[in-house]
Design goal:
Layout lengths: L11 H14 L5 H20 L9 H11 L5 H20 L14
């Protein structure tokens, strides 16, 4: 994946709030869907932070580790649904230049 120039760092909460606004305004998703996507984005960011990694430095292996840590608690259908949600968030993050590479294609259903 090609490297891209990054935007000035935002806090996790600023990223989550920006994504939430986009989900509501641009995507027009229902409140329940908005809440689920925002919560999952927040969980990923917190997981990365707990691993000592910022989203700007995240790699596909970090996203894999997030799924591996949670896989025991999630049903297969939940993993598929969350895969789509995280692809959406990571694609948005790449568009906003919050990460050095677009990680969304690395997430398989």
């Amino acid at each position: 994946m090609s490297e891209m120039s990054l935007q000035a760092p935002l806090s996790q909460e600023e990223m989550v709030e920006s994504y939430r606004r986009w989900v509501v305004e641009a995507r027009g998703l229902a409140k329940a869907t908005e809440a689920e996507r925002v919560a999952l984005a927040r969980r990923l960011l917190e997981f990365l932070w707990g691993c000592g990694r910022a989203l700007a430095d995240a790699r596909a292996v970090d996203v894999d580790a997030f799924f591996a840590e949670n896989a025991q608690r999630w049903k297969r259908s939940t993993v598929r649904q969350f895969s789509g949600c995280l692809r959406d968030f990571l694609s948005y993050a790449a568009q906003r230049r919050w990460c050095s590479q677009n990680l969304s294609p690395s997430i398989l259903s």
